[in-house]
Automatic annotation (TrEMBL):
Residues 275-300 are annotated as: Disordered. Keywords: Nucleus. Its main location: nucleus. Residues 12-268 form the RSE1/DDB1/CPSF1 first beta-propeller domain. It is found in: Nucleus. Residues 393-809 form the RSE1/DDB1/CPSF1 second beta-propeller domain. InterPro entries: Beta-prop_RSE1/DDB1/CPSF1_1st (IPR018846), Beta-prop_RSE1/DDB1/CPSF1_2nd (IPR058543), RSE1/DDB1/CFT1 (IPR050358), RSE1/DDB1/CPSF1_C (IPR004871), WD40/YVTN_repeat-like_dom_sf (IPR015943). GO terms for cellular component: nucleus. One of its GO terms (molecular function) is nucleic acid binding. PANTHER family: DNA REPAIR/RNA PROCESSING CPSF FAMILY. This is Cleavage/polyadenylation specificity factor A subunit C-terminal domain-containing protein.
Length: 1274
């Protein structure tokens, strides 16, 4: 058996004292990697130049059979034991292979051996050897140093074994005593199954046992001194997802990882509490009822405040009081949830549906995910889903919207404005009171101030109209005034809209260029003019007015700046890492404290010069604290260069906009719970990058104190996300007033909101023709989601009606929007979970009724019967249960409320293999055709009888709804036909009004084979597979299926796809076949097939706009193959063989796929196909056709990135995708591009992008345009 064998599962174990690590290998071998421990070993390592960079010595392979014990074969598990001077291994293996049918001959065939590793002497003495253990031993769990034993988890029992070979057994069902000769003790009252379980010690005497259904049981070790006397199983404490890995993290923390659902971090600790009087005398195993509830993953598991209580032991108090009876105390095990990692598990089925919860019907990807109690559906959308709450068409706002919380001020002595007192219990909860909007029409613009209307006739009232176009607005003077920046002036308005102060932007008596942008942060105002000049103003709270601020520390008066903003450091990161070595230097001076009126967080000024230099200045003293020249090139990390303020560029000739000019910049907090400062940069070329501010850490030792600026910030900006857009600028194609009207403002607007789920998010919205939401989540990092609108002219967060609302001016006008509830943003796509408590194997969407049809998976008791109908075997004890088998139910689900409208339960031993929406001929409609639901099933009848199956035809019919349950339309399933088959119906589809189904695998007893088991020989007949059959049936009289054609194909059909009269057949053994159907006469013809054998799990048609047809298959190893049917090629043997063109290793198996129509911008009438696949690890990936010219460019770029980009762990991405093929001399890898590798090109610095494209003879913009056309999920 090799490392790549499907049945081999390698295990990695580490010594508790980190002295070595062991990796399980095939053929009863273990690879040992010793670690250096002593200082002497480290000194020797430093002297050896070849190994000084690694803290370990060379590894070696330990062959257990030849170097430890020759009887070691078929290793089940191994583990290191704690508490020994040398590394000590416990190995569990089988001396004789057996199964339940041979227990009379071979029963207890497992053996445990414990030996030490003397690595220096290459000696491995055996300490303990225990044989005669149950044959169904699963794995080992080493005990702590207190007992220095090991727990063996078997299918039906738990065994404790110490160094003296003592055995303590704990049966967990009635099968334990029947499958082993070991003494099992008292008959258990429970019936547990330990297959798929995981176990771990949380303290010296408590073992957590997590079963495959997620139930967590405590097992307590009873001991006298250091001698174990008993094992006690307690009541279940909690329920999680199906465990895949369990690890202890110290201090009672346990991580339970799952591949089918959320992974959780639990904390277990013992606490002392008084025993209630009613519970006294109930024995030592006391369970606190306070936490005894079903701890479901979708409900109480996510409540961090819930504690769960488990088995406990009474402890009498040692203190007594006078005339008071002594209180009895007990230790109770508390189990609490500390954190969780969201996950939805494998994707077993998917389909597209239409959802109308938002503004308009949008496609939504419905996937069947999870397993067991965490099973259900996960819904994905491409854009961040929102819905309209109000249409405010009278508001306008094509050039800007601002929603502000303004408070009324009162006049104090001397006429000075005094703000009203704030209710401390309402602080931070006050909503917005006014909305400001501005439009460019009628010229020169019109701005309005609106408030909430209480009349009910309209939603808003306009209180003030201001001529001109606003550039920005914000609350000022502690929210007692409105500061408005116009194109030629700055105004301070009273809360009622009357003017308090107006400052015209004049240079003496000459007007300055128009103000194009601004940033307002009380008490500072920054304006940017069209000639890139800067203006800075500061407010005086005592006078209630603003004045110009001296900017002489920033350099010349004629200095130019491309973009700028203010930043208020609410996190304290900047303040804590700022150093000012100049005399009297400080961040927040007395002047600032006076201006702010009592000490807010420090404020900073962020500017970008035309040279591409980012500068951060302190306020109010304007000391340069940070400078970096890598912002226009989008370097991966921006650090302080400690340069002085940059010099201004010459004014003659006037500077023209450049491709890599910074068009917009904002420094704002992003995150969910842990909010951190992020720098968002948007270049004129369409590149958007997000940087996270972090502490600088270790300072470069080559930079001495004299080379550092006295005022500096010890921080760095690390790129967290990057994306490229294809930008159009229609305003540059025309001039004059028309250009102003066509201009689409692209502005970063920070926001903070509370989602309907209760989570609070801080982020930034990018307006314009590429509107995007930018925010961060605790578990997903920085996310960039499209808004789903063609254009967003203006955006603002608005809490005038409810918190969490947003006001947008889109292509449909001004609207009040909100996020849809229950959506999660931790994944690359916005997703919503629909928990159902059970898993689903198939899901389809019926377009005629817009309903979802899904096949649920359940477990049912299985019983075998003789010819007279009597049960062959029945359970004879309460702790012995019937075997279980898979069973299915067909559910009709409404995608609006996800309520099951109707269902059909199949037999307890029948389960669904495939579901398809097929169009069949019928006399019930005017058109003569109608959509039906075709279902193929398997009927298990035990190991002694052949498997059968059936094909079902269901119809969705509308019925009269029950007004108390469903006031709207209601539907039900109606069974129209059932057709029994001699074998399982594994796949179904339809074409041209006919039903296509597969039947197989048919078996026949054909030969006798001799199999050698040790010294005995067993003669048994083998089942020889015959070919499966494909049937084409017509739906006759809406009540029966009539066969019209059939063909023998492979061994077991896994996939059927139809295209007009063509059929694609995927087989578990014989790869893929290409079949055609003719009606005169009825006949199925095999056109071509793959001559190699592959286990195909899915096969699809794939075509491009030029009419080229390909066949795409995926197998159980995750290999994607592309075939071509070309009869003109000599290698195709006159078209009988499919030609393998490409092999690409996807590294994960997928069993479900769907085809999407991909429209070409040049000719949208002819669609291309795009394949979307759902994998067993929960990943979604797509296969997209690429034009030949773009494919050549991207293929050359892929080669450059493979050679020149640093990859994770120095792994080779090309070798990662290569498929070993013994029939081809070279890997067939050039037909599919690695999208995961190419996606990193967007995040590279611009200089690196240009360097790579120059080496392949193309341009950066061309490559990015190619990539943008291909990116996007659908």
């Amino acid at each position: 058996m090799s490392l790549t064998a499907p049945l081999f599962r390698s295990e990695l174990r580490a010594d508790p004292l980190s002295r070595c690590a062991a990796l399980g290998l095939p053929n009863h071998s273990i690879a040992i990697l010793p670690f250096y421990q002593s200082q002497a070993e480290l000194d020797v390592m430093d002297q050896d130049s070849t190994t000084r960079d690694v803290p370990y010595s060379p590894s070696f392979i330990l062959n257990l059979a030849s170097q430890v014990d020759e009887a070691i074969h078929t290793v089940v598990d191994f583990s290191f034991l704690p508490g020994f001077n040398n590394p000590t291994l416990a190995v569990l293996y089988q001396t004789e292979q057996t199964w339940t049918g041979r227990l009379k001959e071979y029963k207890d065939t497992t053996k445990l051996i414990i030996f030490t590793l003397d690595i220096s002497l290459q000696s491995y003495p055996i300490i303990t050897s225990v044989e005669g253990l149950p044959y169904d031993a699963l794995y080992l769990v080493p005990c702590t140093e207190v007992f220095m034993g090991v727990i063996i988890v078997c299918t039906n029992s738990l065994l404790y074994i110490d160094q003296s070979s003592r055995r303590i057994a704990l049966p967990v069902n009635g099968w334990a005593a029947r499958t082993t000769d070991l003494p099992m003790g008292p008959e258990p009252t429970v019936d547990l199954k330990l297959e798929g379980s995981r176990a771990i010690f949380v303290d010296d005497k408590t073992l957590f046992l997590i079963l495959k259904d997620g139930n967590l049981y405590p097992v307590e070790i009873g001991a006298e001194g250091k001698t174990v006397t008993r094992l006690t199983l307690g009541a279940p404490l909690a329920q999680t997802a199906v465990p895949a890995v369990v690890k202890g993290l110290g201090d009672g923390h346990v991580f339970i990882g799952s591949t089918v659902g959320p992974s959780v971090l639990l904390k277990a600790n013992w606490v002392e509490e008084e025993v209630p009087e009613e519970e006294e005398g109930q024995g030592t195993a006391v369970v606190d009822t306070k936490g005894q509830q079903d701890w479901d993953m979708d409900d109480d598991l996510y409540d961090d405040d819930d504690d769960l209580y488990g088995p406990s032991k009474p402890v009498e108090s040692t203190t007594t009081e006078t005339a008071v009876a002594p209180k009895k105390m007990r230790s109770v095990l508390h189990l609490s949830l500390k954190d969780h990692l969201p996950a939805y598990g494998p994707i077993s089925g998917m389909t597209f549906s239409l959802t109308s919860e938002g503004d308009k019907p949008v496609p939504e990807l419905v996937t069947a995910t999870g397993s067991g109690i965490v099973g259900g559906f996960t819904l994905f959308q491409r854009d961040l889903p929102v819905r309209t709450k109000k249409k405010l068409l009278a508001l306008g706002g094509t050039r800007g919207l601002w929603s502000l919380p303004i408070r009324q001020s009162t006049k104090g002595p001397g006429g000075v404005s005094v703000e009203r007192g704030v209710n401390p219990f309402n602080a931070g909860k006050e909503g917005d009171t006014c909305i400001l909007s501005t439009d460019a029409n009628p010229s020169p613009g019109l701005s309005r101030i609106a408030t909430k209307s209480n009349s009910g006739k309209s939603d808003i009232n306009f209180t003030t109209r201001v001529p001109g176009t606003m550039v920005g607005a914000a609350a000022f003077f502690q929210r007692t005034a409105i500061l408005v920046v116009m194109t030629n002036a700055i105004k301070v308005l009273e809360p009622d809209g009357t003017e308090r102060q107006t400052i015209l932007d004049m240079d003496g008596k000459l007007p300055r260029p128009k103000i194009r942008a601004c940033s307002i942060s009380d008490p500072f105002v920054l304006i940017m003019r069209e000639d890139d000049s800067l203006g800075l103003f500061i407010g005086e709270t005592e006078r209630g007015k603003i004045r110009r601020k001296d900017m002489s520390p920033m350099g010349e008066k004629s200095s130019k700046y491309l973009a700028g903003c203010f930043f208020t450091d609410t996190s304290g990161l900047f303040e804590s890492h700022y150093q000012n070595l100049a005399p009297g230097g400080d961040v927040a001076t007395a002047t600032l404290q006076t201006v702010l009126g009592g000490g807010n967080k420090a404020q900073w000024l962020v500017l970008v010069r035309p040279q591409g230099i980012l500068e951060i200045w302190t306020l109010p003293k304007l000391a340069l604290a940070f400078s970096s020249d890598g912002i226009s090139s989008l370097h991966n990390v921006l650090v302080d260069s400690h340069d002085p303020p940059a010099l201004s560029l010459p004014l003659d000739p006037p500077r023209k906009p450049q491709e890599f000019d910074v068009e917009q910049i904002v420094l704002a907090p992003l995150g969910e719970g842990d909010v951190k400062p992020h720098l968002c940069v948007f270049l004129r070329s369409g590149q958007l990058s997000v940087y996270q501010a972090m502490p600088l850490g270790q300072v470069d030792p080559t930079t001495g104190p004299e080379a550092r600026r006295p005022s500096h910030l010890d921080i760095k900006f690390v790129k967290a996300a990057s994306i490229a857009f294809e930008i159009s600028r229609p305003e540059e194609e025309v001039s004059g007033v028309l250009a102003e009207h066509k201009k689409i403002p692209r502005v970063f607007v920070p926001f903070s909101t509370t989602a309907p789920t209760g989570a609070g998010y801080c982020g930034v919205f990018l307006t314009g023709d590429r509107p995007n939401w930018i925010f961060g989540t605790d578990r997903g990092g920085v996310k960039i989601f499209p808004s789903g609108h063609a254009v967003v002219n203006a955006f603002t967060a608005c809490s005038m009606w409810e918190r969490g609302d947003f006001l947008m001016y889109t292509e449909d006008g001004p609207r009040l929007l909100e996020w849809l509830p229950d959506f999660s943003y931790d994944y690359p796509l916005p997703s919503r979970s629909v928990p159902r408590g059970r898993s689903y194997s198939n899901v389809v969407f019926d377009p005629s009724t817009c309903l979802v049809v899904a096949a649920s998976c359940n477990q049912a008791k299985f019983a075998s019967y003789d010819e007279d109908g009597n049960r062959i075997w029945e359970p004879d004890a309460p702790n012995v249960s019937d075997p279980t088998s898979d069973t299915s139910a067909l559910e009709l689900i409404s995608p609006d409320s996800w309520v099951t409208m109707d269902g059909f339960e199949f037999a307890s031993n029948e389960y669904i293999n495939d579901i398809a929406i097929v169009t069949l001929e019928t006399a019930a409609t005017e058109t003569g055709i109608k959509d039906f639901i075709a279902v193929g099933t398997t009927i298990d009848r035990g190991e002694d009888l052949a498997v059968k199956g059936a094909a079902y035809i269901f119809e969705i019919v509308e019925v009269v709804p029950d007004a108390a349950i469903a006031p709207t339309r209601w539907y039900k399933l109606r069974l129209r036909c059932r057709d029994d088959a001699k074998g399982p119906v594994t796949a179904v589809c339809g074409f041209q009004g006919y039903l296509v189904s597969s039947m197989g695998q048919k078996l026949s007893f054909a030969l006798v084979h001799w199999v050698c088991y040790g010294t005995r020989q067993l003669c048994h007949p083998l089942k020889c597979p015959r070919s499966s059959e494909i049937f084409v049936r017509a739906f006759d009289s809406d009540e029966r299926l009539v066969g019209v054609a059939f063909i023998d194909v492979g061994i077991y059909v896994t996939s059927l796809r139809s295209l007009k009269n063509l059929l694609l057949v995927g087989d578990a053994v014989k790869s893929v076949m290409f079949v055609a159907f003719q009606e005169d006469p009825y006949k199925l013809v095999l056109l071509a097939k793959d001559v190699e054998h592959h286990c195909v799990t899915s096969a699809d048609f794939f075509f491009t706009d030029d009419g080229e047809l390909s066949i795409v298959t995926g197998d159980e190893e995750g290999i994607i193959r592309v075939y071509q049917h070309n009869p003109q090629d000599p290698d195709s043997r006159d078209g009988k063989h499919l030609l393998l063109r490409t092999e690409f290793h996807g590294q994960v198996e997928y069993r479900t796929s769907t085809v999407i129509a991909k429209r070409n911008k040049d000719d949208p009438s002819i669609p291309q196909s795009k394949l979307l696949h759902g994998a067993t690890d929960g990943s979604l990936f797509s296969l997209t056709p690429v034009e030949e010219a773009a494919f050549k460019r991207l293929q050359l770029l892929q080669g450059q990135m493979t050679r020149n980009v640093q990859h994770t762990a120095a792994l080779n991405p090309k070798a990662f995708r290569i498929v070993k093929n013994e029939f081809n001399s070279k890997p067939l890898l050039k037909g599919i591009l690695d999208g995961n590798l190419l996606a990193h090109y967007e995040a590279l610095p611009i200089a690196t992008q240009n360097e790579m494209t120059q080496q392949i003879g193309t341009e950066r913009q061309t490559v990015l345009r190619d990539w943008i056309a291909l990116s996007g999920p659908w």
